[in-house]
């Protein structure tokens, strides 16, 4: 990996070249204010925020609650749904670790310096993207849109021996094709999640990409990505967290993604495919015996999309997708479970402008899951006077292979698929060129919600319950002439298990944020306030108090292409409980230098 | 912190320094070789042209100098000869020249911005339309064609827009000439304001 890093550095030097003139270029952008249902974070905003990773960026930009706990990847909560109701797409295809309970991935493992654009759509998107997209989709794009010589590098250092180095280079081979390489390395000694402890846990992440991009009559891209995420961790039992020595977790994945898009030929077909292999392992050496658990996985995704009708007033898209996932569980080198699951889906979606102030859309999807009944999803939407949007959508989620077959932890092979029905009404009002306000009212009903029932050692996953999440989310944006940007967001939701009358765990009832950014000619500075209200956690439904954290950041452009910055996360050192007995690390400051041409 | 991290950091910082302060070669001409393809309306050819054109004149003026001073002198010579040769047909675009003799590039005076095409917006598609255009000696877009583009209504929108652009004419000395150049019309799915 280190050689790859050095290789990428050399490559980025080679790719450094005079940038092309913008004299003969016009750019049309779809810049718009965020709404309560859709947030787009572009490259400029990502760079400006200086966020150290994607979870930190989403928490401050998209009013998404992110919670860490032992063993699991960080949990993402959108509108009452958790990570198992949110689909993450990287370069157009689902990206997750098939061995995780919630079929998710740790967003921190995607190097934020490689991200070009993130789009968060809140609400069900199952018709276009299939299972798992019940309460939201996070679309992450990492591929450059243009072939051009580019080079970038970043070095950061901070508290708790944090250091990060990242390099990126793209070299145009000719006008229409180019090659790229990226690599990053991050290290940190994390605070113990126990409040009074002075234990530290080392973590190290290596990430690298090589890719090829062609932009011509048809577009083609190919990307090989790999990462190695090593961390020492605390252990625990239920909601008890214990400091632990030599307990190591490691995720090692590689992924090959490719795509062909041919908009010039009839039907405008696009074909995307990815194959991923990975291992997630936990190891601990103890006098009374070693712990050695491995979860190995394979994931294959293929997606074909066509546009049989594509006119100014209407558009019909038709497509199919196929997903196959493999899961194997090994305990001390002995395989104890080895299963696979695949599903194929076909979908059609039609959008039409009926009148100047009225447009409508409808979609249908059928999924055929191995060994299960067919699942159908629907989506109906209507936009009136451009400001009012009404949507009804259904979604589904097949239980993860971990929930179905893990021999280690509470599996239940009789689990049914979860389904959801969502009603959303969104009102977006552009008050002026500089002010925008948007509010969404939503209600999602879940059937066959999968929850863990019983004590950790003896309980198991069951889907006997009905749940409902309803609430409202609002955003307000204000821009001044002299580059001052203010964003406010607020959400209230009631994620309730109807069967038992209890709140769904770890979801906050109230969440909100404020963000102020000021840009000068060569400097920019900002602050972010992120708040989450009361949550309930653990089997005893303990009430976790709300919290509010403040982040600060400042950037200065020293000379053309070179900037330096400082960022402080949680600057008032709030050591709040992310989940029961799992405390946030508190204040964290770092400085960085960036070169980008 | 560990030694190897400092070594790596040092390598990165030194790499950047070298890149930043590496002397850049002086440009031979004050025109972008990347985008201007051809000058129409003079009578010579240069090795600097990306797309050399067929010479029609029997007495081409060579222009092989590598440094800018010489090039400038050469340009002045070219201009005097051009003005003699072309005095009868100043805006005759059938005669050809190279970008090497251009003393003033065309500049955008009026740009037409079109709305993001509906079908591209619905499909969530972005991309760059590469156009090849001829700007006549009056600065009007005389002809335009799409070299490549992402489709979904973006090629047509860009083509429609470019025809309404107005440029300041390219010049060789005081003489206005027609040029053929590459123009990019970019559609980006932007972020929040």
Features:
heterodimer; A: 597 residues; mainly beta; 22-stranded antiparallel barrel; five-stranded mixed β-sheet; 5 helices; 36 strands; 6% helix; globular; B: 193 residues; alpha+beta; six-stranded antiparallel β-sheet; two-stranded antiparallel sheet; 8 strands
What is the string of SSEs of chain B from the N terminus onward?
A: HEHEEHEEHEEE
Beta content of chain A:
over 45%
Largest interface: A-B, 67 and 54 residues
| Annotation, overall tally of beta strands of chain B | 8
Q: Compute the gyration radius of chain B: what is it?
A: 22 Å
Secondary structure class of chain A reads mainly beta
Percent in strands of chain B: 15-25%
How much helical structure, as a percent, in the residues of chain B? 25-40%
Instruction: Work out the number of β strands of chain A.
Output: 36
Amino- and carboxy-terminal Cα gap of chain A: 25 Å
* Backbone CA Rg of chain A: 24 Å
Mean pLDDT across every amino acid position of chain B: 69
Secondary structure topology:
The complex is a heterodimer of chains A (597) and B (193).
Chain A: H1 2-15, E1 25-29, E2 38-42, H2 43-49, H3 54-61, E3 65-67, E4 75-77, E5 86-90, E6 93-94, E7 117-122, H4 126-129, E8 136-141, E9 150-158, E10 162-172, E11 177-191, E12 200-215, E13 219-232, E14 235-237, E15 240-242, E16 247-261, E17 270-284, E18 291-310, E19 314-331, E20 334-355, E21 358-369, E22 375-384, E23 388-397, H5 401-405, E24 418-432, E25 435-453, E26 460-479, E27 484-497, E28 510-519, E29 523-532, E30 535-537, E31 542-544, E32 547-559, E33 562-569, E34 577-579, E35 582-583, E36 588-596
Parallel strand pairs in A: 5-8
Antiparallel strand pairs in A: 2-7, 3-4, 5-6, 7-8, 9-10, 9-36, 10-11, 11-12, 12-13, 13-16, 14-15, 16-17, 17-18, 18-19, 19-20, 20-21, 21-22, 22-23, 23-24, 24-25, 25-26, 26-27, 27-28, 28-29, 29-32, 30-31, 32-33, 33-36, 34-35
Chain B: H1 3-21, E1 36-40, H2 68-85, E2 96-97, E3 107-110, H3 118-123, E4 127-135, E5 141-148, H4 154-162, E6 166-168, E7 170-172, E8 175-188
Antiparallel strand pairs in B: 1-2, 1-8, 3-6, 4-5, 4-8, 7-8
């Amino acid at each position: 990996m280190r050689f790859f890093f050095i290789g990428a550095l050399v490559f980025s030097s080679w790719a450094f070249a005079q940038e092309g003139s913008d004299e003969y270029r016009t750019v049309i952008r779809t810049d718009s204010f965020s709404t309560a249902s859709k947030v787009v974070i572009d490259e400029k905003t990502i760079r400006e925020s200086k966020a150290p990773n994607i979870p930190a960026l989403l928490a401050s930009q998209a009013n998404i609650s992110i919670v860490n706990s032992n063993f699991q990847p960080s949990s993402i909560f959108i509108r009452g749904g958790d990570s198992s109701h949110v689909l993450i797409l990287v370069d157009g295809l689902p990206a997750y670790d098939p061995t995780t309970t919630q079929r998710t991935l740790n967003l921190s493992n995607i190097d934020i310096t490689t991200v070009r654009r993130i789009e968060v759509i809140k609400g069900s998107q199952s018709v276009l993207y299939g299972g798992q997209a019940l309460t939201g989709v996070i679309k992450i794009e990492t591929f450059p849109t243009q072939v051009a010589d580019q080079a970038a590098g970043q070095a950061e250092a901070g508290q708790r021996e944090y250091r990060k180095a990242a390099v990126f280079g793209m070299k145009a081979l000719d006008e229409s094709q180019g090659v790229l390489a990226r690599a990053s390395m991050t290290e940190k000694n994390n605070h113990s999640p126990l409040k009074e402890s002075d234990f530290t846990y080392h973590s190290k992440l290596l990430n690298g990409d090589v890719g090829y991009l062609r932009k011509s009559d048809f577009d083609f891209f190919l990307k090989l990505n790999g990462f190695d995420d090593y961390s020492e961790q605390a252990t625990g039992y239920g909601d008890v967290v214990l400091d632990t020595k030599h307990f190591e977790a490691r995720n090692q994945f590689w992924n090959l993604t490719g795509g062909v898009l041919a908009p010039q030929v009839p039907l405008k077909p696009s074909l995307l495919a990815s194959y991923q292999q990975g291992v997630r392992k936990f190891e601990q050496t103890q006098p009374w015996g070693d712990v050695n658990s491995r979860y190995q996985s394979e994931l294959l995704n293929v997606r074909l999309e066509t546009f049989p009708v594509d006119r100014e007033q209407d558009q019909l898209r038709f497509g199919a997708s196929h997903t196959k996932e493999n899961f194997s569980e090994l305990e001390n080198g002995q395989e104890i479970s080895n299963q696979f699951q695949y599903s194929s889906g076909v979908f059609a979606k039609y959008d039409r402008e009926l009148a100047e102030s009225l447009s409508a859309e409808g979609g249908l999807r059928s999924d055929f899951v191995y060994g299960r009944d067919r699942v159908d999803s629907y989506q109906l939407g209507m936009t009136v006077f451009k400001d009012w949007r009404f949507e009804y959508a259904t979604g589904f989620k097949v239980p993860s292979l971990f929930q179905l077959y893990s021999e280690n932890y509470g599996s239940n092979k009789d689990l049914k698929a979860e389904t959801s029905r969502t009603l959303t009404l969104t009102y977006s009002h552009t008050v002026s060129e500089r002010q925008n306000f948007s509010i969404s009212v939503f209600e999602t009903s879940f059937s066959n919600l999968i929850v863990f029932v019983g004590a950790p050692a003896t309980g198991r996953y069951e889907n006997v319950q009905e749940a409902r999440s309803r609430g409202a989310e609002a955003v307000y944006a204000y821009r001044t002439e002299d580059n001052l940007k203010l964003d406010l967001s607020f959400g209230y939701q009631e994620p309730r298990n109807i069967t038992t009358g209890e709140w769904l765990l770890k979801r906050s009832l109230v969440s909100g944020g404020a963000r102020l950014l000021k840009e000068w000619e060569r400097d920019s500075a900002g602050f972010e306030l992120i708040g989450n209200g009361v949550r309930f956690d653990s089997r005893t439904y303990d009430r976790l108090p709300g919290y509010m954290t403040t982040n600060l950041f400042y950037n200065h452009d020293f000379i053309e292409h070179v900037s330096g910055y400082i960022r402080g996360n949680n600057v008032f050192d709030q050591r709040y409980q992310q989940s029961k007995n799992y405390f946030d690390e508190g204040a964290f400051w770092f400085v960085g230098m960036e070169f980008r041409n | 912190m560990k030694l190897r991290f400092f070594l790596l950091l040092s390598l990165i910082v030194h790499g950047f320094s070298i890149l930043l302060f590496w002397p850049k070669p002086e440009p031979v001409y004050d025109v972008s070789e990347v985008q201007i393809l051809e000058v129409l309306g003079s009578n010579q050819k240069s090795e600097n042209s990306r797309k050399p054109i067929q010479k029609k004149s029997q007495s081409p003026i060579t222009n092989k100098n590598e440094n800018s001073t010489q090039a400038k002198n050469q340009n002045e010579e070219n201009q005097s000869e051009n003005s003699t040769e072309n005095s009868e047909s100043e805006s005759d675009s059938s005669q050809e020249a190279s970008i090497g003799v251009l003393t003033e590039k065309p500049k955008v005076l009026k740009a037409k911005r079109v709305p993001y095409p509906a079908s591209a917006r619905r499909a969530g598609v972005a991309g760059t339309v590469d156009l090849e255009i001829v700007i006549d000696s009056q600065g009007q877009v005389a002809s335009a064609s799409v070299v490549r583009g992402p489709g979904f209504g973006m090629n047509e929108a860009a083509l429609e827009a470019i025809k309404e652009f107005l440029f300041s004419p390219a010049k060789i000395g005081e003489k206005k000439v027609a040029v053929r150049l590459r123009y990019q019309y970019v559609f980006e799915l932007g972020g929040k304001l």
